[in-house]
Specification:
- By secondary structure, the protein is mostly helical.
- The protein has one domain (2-157).
- 53% of the residues lie in helices and 7% in strands.
- The chain is built from eight helices and two strands.
- Helix 2 packs parallel to helix 4 (55-66).
- The chain is globular, with a radius of gyration of 16 Å.
Length: 165
């Protein structure tokens, strides 16, 4: 399901459905981290009770069991994606920026932006994180097979500098 969420989030980005894209990409990372923890022996009940939708806790645990110190390089990406969980609940007063490539955020300024929560993530950093997490856990053929229906493979490959296949 993580891969399907990833493709759906990418599709939402290209359809210019920005807050939706961010939220769906949050689900992609959440589902992938939970899948990796399941592979390490965690139960579905443990994941539900101990982590719920908390990407920061899932990330901390994944890094601990993966034994890959290089994952720390993605801590700030997780922080930005984790914030997307807040978008599940309607609220007033926020700005959202999503870019295709890695770039610094450029939050809205001026009196109208005062006090607004700003969300920013780039599709490229999500693609890169997905590839890092898939590496050593699945094969490119596994991914290709799951993307073989409809337009999924095209949506996955579109402008993706970090394709796993």
């Amino acid at each position: 399901m993580a891969l399907q969420y990833h493709v759906a989030g990418r599709s939402a980005y290209f359809a210019y459905s920005m807050p939706v894209a961010g939220n769906i990409l949050h689900h992609a990372i959440e589902m992938l981290l939970k899948s990796l923890l399941l592979e390490k022996g965690y139960t579905a009940t443990q994941l539900k009770d101990n982590f719920r939708h908390n990407l920061r806790r899932l990330w901390k645990e994944t890094k601990k069991v993966a034994g890959n110190p290089g994952l720390t390089a993605y801590d700030q990406v997780i922080v930005r994606i984790a914030a997307m969980e807040e978008l599940r609940y309607p609220r007033r007063g926020y700005t959202f920026q999503m870019s295709l490539r890695k770039e610094p955020p450029s939050p809205a300024t001026g009196p109208a932006a005062a006090g607004l929560r700003h969300y920013h993530v780039s599709l490229e950093e999500v693609d890169e994180l997905m590839k890092i997490l898939l590496t050593n856990n699945v094969t490119p053929d596994w991914v290709r097979t799951r993307l073989s229906r409809g337009d999924a493979i095209n949506q996955y490959l579109r402008e993706n500098l970090h394709s796993f296949i």
